[in-house]
Amino acid sequence: MGFASAVTKPAVVFFAHFSSGPVVYPPLDTLGLLFYAAFFIAVTLLTMRRAAYGACVLAFAVPFALYQDAFGETITLPKVAVLAVLLGLSAYPRAFGSLAETAPWRILTAALFVLAATLVSFVHAAYAGPVIRESLKAAEYILLFCAMFSAYRLDPDRRMLSTALLASAIAVCILALAQEIVGSPSALLVNGHALPRIAGPLEGPNQLGGYLDVALSIALAFAVLERRRMAQAALFLMVLADMLTFSRGGLIGAAAAIATVMAVARSNRGAALAPIAAGIAAGLGATILLGVIAGSLGMLRWWNYESTYAGGVGTRPQLWHAAIVLWKQHPLFGVGAGNFELDIPLTGLRGVRTHANSLYLQSLVEGGIPLFGATLWLVYVSISTFVRERLESPFVLAALAGSIALALHQIVDFLTFYPKIGGEWWIVLALGAAELTVFVRVNAGACA
C-alpha cells in the first residue's frame, strides 16, 4: 500500500513537514517499484531521443518529490530523473566533455570542496548516518549539475527548458495558493487571529520563499530580456504566493533578485514591473481580506490548528546560540554533517530538532572551518561566475540573481538543505554556466 498511500494522501506526497521527529514516508511497494522503473526507462529513452526532453522532465520534476522509502534511503522523482538523464546522455559521444570548460569546472570544483569537507566532518560525528545522508545530497547536486549542463550543451533549446521551468513554478504557486481554501500547513498569529501561511509542495512557508527566490529570478530574466508572456504570468503568481508565505527571509530574497535583474537589465524593465506591482497589490489585498475575515467573522478555524511544521523548531536566537555552543566544542571539524539537530539537547535546549536556520552557521557547526570555508567559496563562485558587463542570456542573469537572493536569504534560513530548493538552484547554475560558455552574446529576442 506504500505507493498507493503516497498518491492518495497529498500530505505525504507534497508536504514533507519538518517536525520534532523524523519524517516517515510510505515504503516502496510493488506498485511504486513498477512506477519508478517505468519512469526511469521513459526518461532514459526520451533523453536518448533528444537531450532537451530529458532535461525538461528533470526541470519540471524537482519540486514534486513523490517520496518513497527503500533500504533506509528516500526515493524521489528528481533522483530517478537525474540517473535516467545521465544514462540517456551516455549514448551521445563526448556528452560530458564540456564540463571541463572554465565556467562549469569552477562551479564543480567548489561543489567538490563542499562534498570533501562534508565527508571530513566524520571526525567528530556522534552519528554516522546523517553524515552519509548529507554527503549523498551533495553528490546528488553535483550529478544534477552535470546532467543539466551536459543536456543543455548537447541540445540548447532555451525556449523548451524555460517553458518547463516556468510551468513547474506556476504549478507550485497554484498548489500553494489553493491552500488559502483547503488549509495551510502553518499559520501566523496576528492579534490572536490566525492567518494561513502557504507552502504548496515545499516543506514549509520559508522553504517556498526560498524556492521562489530562484524561480522568480528565472521569470524575471525571461520577462525582461525576452518579454515572454508566460514569464510575466508566472511572475505575478510568484510575487502573490511569496507575499502569502509571510516569510521575511523570502521577501528579502525576492527583493534582492528583483533589484539584481533591474540593475543589470537596464531596458525593458516595464515588462516585469507591471506583474510585480500586480502581485504585490493582490498579496496585500488578500492579506487585508483574510485579516478582516479572521477578526470580524472568525472564519479561519480551518487554519487555526497545531501545525506539524511549526512544532519542535525553536526560535532563531535559540538555534543560533546552540550552534555557537556546539561549534566551540569542535571548532576545527565540527560536530558532523547532519548531527546538529541530534546534538541540540547537549546545549540545554529541549524538545527541538531542526537545523540551525542559517546556511553559514550550519556549515560552521557541522563541518567546522573546512565546510564553512567551502560553503563561502561556493557562494562566491555561484555569484562571481555570472558577473559580466552585459548579460544578454536569461539563464545567466537568472543564475546571478538567484544566487544573490539565496546568499542573502540563507543568512536567516538554511534552504539548500531541502533538495526541492537546492535542486532548483543547481539547475539554474547549470543552465547559466552552459549559456555562459557559448551563448552569452545571443540575441535576447531569438526565442521570442
Characterise this structure:
With about 450 residues, the protein is mainly alpha-helical. It has one domain (about 100-440). It has helices at about 1-10, 10-15, 30-50, 50-60, 75-90, 100-120, 130-155, 160-180, 205-225, 230-245, 250-265, 270-295, 315-330, 340-345, 360-385, 395-410, 420-440, and strands spanning about 70, 75, 185-190, 195. A two-stranded antiparallel ribbon has the order 1-2. A two-stranded antiparallel ribbon has the order 3-4. A hairpin with a 2-residue loop joins strand 3 (about 185-190) and strand 4. Helix 4 runs antiparallel to helix 5 (about 75-90), helix 11 runs antiparallel to helix 16 and helix 15 (about 360-385) runs antiparallel to helix 16 (about 395-410). The longest helix is centred in the middle third of the chain and has 28 residues, at about 270-295. The N and C termini lie far apart (about 45 Å). The model is unreliable at about 5-20, about 295-310 and about 440-448 (pLDDT under 50).
Poorly predicted regions are: 7-21, 297-311, 440-448
User: Which sequence of strands runs across the widest sheet?
Assistant: 1-2
| N to C succession of SSEs | HHHHEEHHHHEEHHHHHHHHH
- How is the main sheet built? 2 strands, antiparallel
Distance between the termini: 47 Å
Number of helices: 17
Task: Compute the number of structural domains.
Answer: 1
On the 0 to 100 scale, the average pLDDT is: 86
Query: How many strand units?
Result: 4
Global geometry: globular
Strand content: under 5%
Rg from alpha-carbon coordinates:
21 Å
Structural class: mainly alpha
Q: Helicity, in percent?
A: 55-70%
